[in-house]
Design a protein that fits this description.
The complex is a heterodimer of chains A (171) and B (625). Chain A is of the alpha/beta class. Chain A has five helices and seven strands, in the order H-E-E-E-H-E-H-E-H-E-E-H. In chain A, strands 2-1-5-4-3-6-7 form a seven-stranded mixed beta sheet. The chains are: A alpha/beta (171), B alpha+beta (625).
């Protein structure tokens, strides 16, 4: 009578402990390697005038930089001048995704600091950004015409990153 | 030098546990009813050597003996003495030594304090406990040796992580460990009881004090941890459903269930197997929690430097422990045929247990699901507070109701108490007054408030009734009152907390709805182990026109070099004013988080009440039915 239960319990336990065992090898640190070379997820974003914008449309541009930012985010303020620099490059368009922000504050921010964004979208609840695999902001993804992810930057872009992006585009 | 002594002392303690296991096995076959002196002596020797090894590490920390890697990595000469001492358990190896010491202390106390007549039961408990002790000493000596020497001896240590340099966090691990590891003794006792066929009442009276004590410390440990998170992490909350917080909460649910079930068992009404299962599960859950935290498969604020071999060791131990427990249980569990009369006290306790198991399942799934999904499917998700709040909150209502109604019923007798009584109407009346004042239109929160008020009012009334009959169960009254108040104040706190985030420069002021926040000036400060910039803020309440000065800090610790953000919290009786500041690099702008949090002190106080009630249970003796 007891035996079948015992077997079921043992199997269940084996399943749990085996999973634990394999989880020991899991990569703990989030790195960008796994998404490089993959196609970007199809996500529909909302423009500041509330029109829809499908991310697939960026295949019209040779290279696109998708930047996740917010006016409340201190490192975003720091990287902004670098985005402005990048916005002057030919063949590169910057799509901004304004993350969990108020539209008024975001506009104020851009008026003060300059607007590097070719297309400006918003994600007030932060849900769309998850589809891009964004963990925190600022994050920046470089995508080519075939919608393949070439590079992902976590944290603010610095001058080294700017030069790297320039190099990739000029190749 | 010290390092060698540490290894020698812990090795002796390890050997004594093997000796104890050997002698105890021999003793099982002898039908004499007394436990021989030598077992007591070896047990005492084990305790002494184990404590000595801990003392060695403590001395190493106090006198900054950097010839031990552990001290070198986690201490520094300029650290205040208090944090040198708490540094002993502020790291993986040291805390494991503390863990093992508590195992030994409990083993010894059980042996000398338990008055149970069944000799084999005590001996078997000692055997199981010593298997645990031996395993952890082996783990300590082979994998996580706190006494490992370093040569050449460094002149200076690397310092303790500054966020751990805090009075609350100095006492948090020991409290939690007494709770966690205390559960080992009733784990061992439960297995021993199965094999030696201990009678129900005798098992219940034996484990009850241990359950009460571990539950008391566990509750306090959780409380201190969340107080620390509240003022140190600067996130403006006290519970984040962080996986490691969950690991301390899950055994707590089981202990709570056990605490109640033991009361049933004590009166010989049943639940024998169930008490055994809970005892086994509580310690198992503790070890699972330890595995999750120490192996580093969870990401959380509790960072221990990770090493997969640790995880593997604990996992192997866990697997062996669980498989043999299941085996022993199925081999020896007696068949029980008990029917529980509906609407009797034990019936309500049984339902309380289901609730605890449900809460456990929810938290366990929330904690493990991301790990399993990542391992099996390779997808990364995170489960956050909305999941827990959404699933758990509605079930608080029936739980609160059962906590109100259950204790009023009698043991064994099925007799339905009237629900529609004066107390309920009084509670509804009180609720309506509060509802009218706060004007909260969330239906769920409204119901939770209503039922928590009901619990509080009924419990106070019960106290009055019992007091007349001179038979007050203080333990239950105080704990249940505390729980009712806790839920009430958490809800009120949830409704009335306000938060403002903004950027500000020195000399500027910010006008919010109810307050003007003036950033007056920046000052600097320095002590032995850190330098800090202090923001001087004046908070002007627009309605009451009073002002408060708040001084949040940004601290720059030198050893190791770390920046921490210290919240400035002004508590008055009813509400906390909470302000954190962080600098924005390359600018003179500071980012400010300003919060008003009502009734925080009441929340802490409620948890204190809950745990205090549990402690009283330790002293209470069963009254005859």
């Amino acid at each position: 009578m007891k035996k079948p239960y015992l077997i079921i319990i043992y199997f269940f336990l084996i399943f749990i402990f085996t999973t634990f065992y394999f989880s020991l090898d899991n990569k703990k640190i989030y790195d960008t390697e796994s998404i490089i070379g993959k196609k970007i997820n199809e996500v529909e974003l909302t423009l500041f005038n509330n029109d829809k914008f499908n991310i697939n449309k960026i295949s019209n541009y040779k290279y696109t930089l998708i930047n996740f930012w917010a006016s409340w985010c201190a490192p975003c303020r720091k990287e902004h001048k670098n985005l402005v620099r990048l916005s002057k490059i030919q063949n590169l368009k910057i799509v901004g995704v304004n993350f969990k922000d108020s539209q008024i504050k975001a506009k104020e921010f851009l008026e003060k600091m300059g607007n590097p964004f070719f297309i400006l979208t918003k994600d007030p609840e932060g849900k769309k950004s998850i589809d891009f695999g964004v963990y925190g902001i600022p994050e920046t993804i470089l995508v080519n015409q075939d919608l393949i992810i070439l590079k992902k930057y976590i944290g603010p872009l610095d001058l080294k990153d700017v030069n790297e992006i320039k190099k990739i585009i000029n190749k | 030098m010290l390092s060698n002594f540490g290894v020698i002392f812990s090795s002796i303690a390890l050997i004594t546990s093997f000796i104890l296991i050997y002698f105890s096995f021999l003793e099982l076959k002898i039908s004499d009813s007394k436990i021989p002196k030598k077992i007591y002596n070896f047990s005492l020797a084990q305790l002494i050597f184990s404590l000595l090894s801990f003392l060695i590490l403590l001395i190493g920390y106090v006198f900054s003996d950097f010839s031990m890697i552990n001290v070198y990595e986690n201490s520094h000469t300029t650290k205040p003495l208090f944090y040198k001492i708490s540094g002993t358990w502020g790291n993986h190896e040291g805390s494991l030594l503390l863990w093992t010491n508590i195992l030994v202390i409990f083993s010894f106390l059980f042996l000398i304090l338990t008055k149970n007549k069944n000799k084999n039961f005590k001996i078997l408990t000692l055997i199981f406990q010593n298997f645990l002790i031996a395993t952890f000493f082996i783990f300590l000596l082979t994998n996580s040796n706190p006494f490992s020497p370093i040569f050449p001896i460094p002149n200076e240590g690397m310092g303790l992580n500054p966020i751990l340099q805090d009075p609350a966090l100095a006492v948090h691990p020991p409290l939690l460990y007494v709770g966690f590891v205390g559960s080992s003794i009733y784990f061992s006792a439960a297995l021993a009881a199965l094999i030696s066929k201990v009678e129900a009442k005798s098992l219940a009276t034996t484990i009850k004090p241990w359950v009460s004590v571990s539950w008391f410390f566990q509750t306090l440990g959780i409380l201190v941890g969340s107080i620390w998170a509240y003022y140190e992490l600067g996130w403006g909350g006290y519970w984040f459903w962080d996986p490691v917080e969950n690991s301390s909460l899950m055994p707590w649910f089981l202990m709570t269930a056990l605490l109640h079930s033991v009361l049933v068992l004590e009166r010989r009404i049943g639940l024998y197997s169930w008490v055994i299962i809970l005892s086994i599960l509580t310690f198992t859950m503790t070890v699972i929690g330890t595995f999750l935290v120490r192996s580093g498969i969870l990401n959380s604020v509790h960072t221990f430097a990770n090493d997969p071999s640790r995880g593997l060791f604990i996992l192997t131990f866990l697997t062996l422990m669980v498989f043999s427990s299941v085996f022993i249980f199925f081999k020896y569990a007696p068949s029980e045929k008990k029917t529980y009369r509906i609407f009797s006290k034990e019936f309500f306790i049984l339902i309380n247990n289901w609730f605890m198991v449900f809460f456990l399942a929810v938290v366990l799934i929330g904690t493990l699901y991301p790990v399993f999904l990542d391992t099996l499917v390779g997808e990364k998700i995170s489960v956050g507070p909305p999941y827990y709040n959404f699933i758990l909150a509605p079930f608080l209502i029936p739980l609160l109701f059962l906590m109100t109604s259950g204790p009023r019923h009698k043991w064994v007798v099925s007799e339905l108490k009237k629900i529609f009584n004066v107390i309920l109407f009084l509670s509804i009346f009180l609720f309506l007054i509060i509802f009218f004042i706060i004007q909260e239109n969330n239906f769920l929160i409204g119901l939770i408030l209503l039922f928590s008020i009901y619990l509080v009012v009924q419990t106070i009334f019960d106290f009055y009734e019992n007091f007349k009959n001179k038979s007050v169960n203080f333990s239950r009254i105080i704990s249940h009152l505390g729980f009712g108040l806790l839920i009430f104040f958490i809800s009120i706190n949830h409704i009335f907390s306000t938060e403002n985030n903004f950027n500000i420069r020195t000399g500027e002021e910010k006008d919010t709805k109810d307050y003007i926040i003036k950033f007056e000036k920046l000052t600097t400060m320095s002590t032995t182990n850190y330098k800090s910039i202090v923001g001087n803020f004046k908070i002007i309440n627009k309605k009451k026109l009073n002002t408060k000065n708040l001084k949040p800090e940004i601290r720059f610790y030198n050893q190791p070099q770390t920046i921490t953000y210290e919240a400035s919290i002004r508590s008055n009786f009813f509400s906390d004013t909470y302000l954190t500041m962080s600098n924005i690099s390359d600018t003179d702008v500071f980012n400010i988080k300003f919060e008003k949090k009502p009734f925080m002190n009441f929340i802490w106080f409620s948890v204190l009440l809950i745990s205090f009630g549990g402690l009283l249970n330790f002293f209470s003796r069963k009254k005859q039915i």
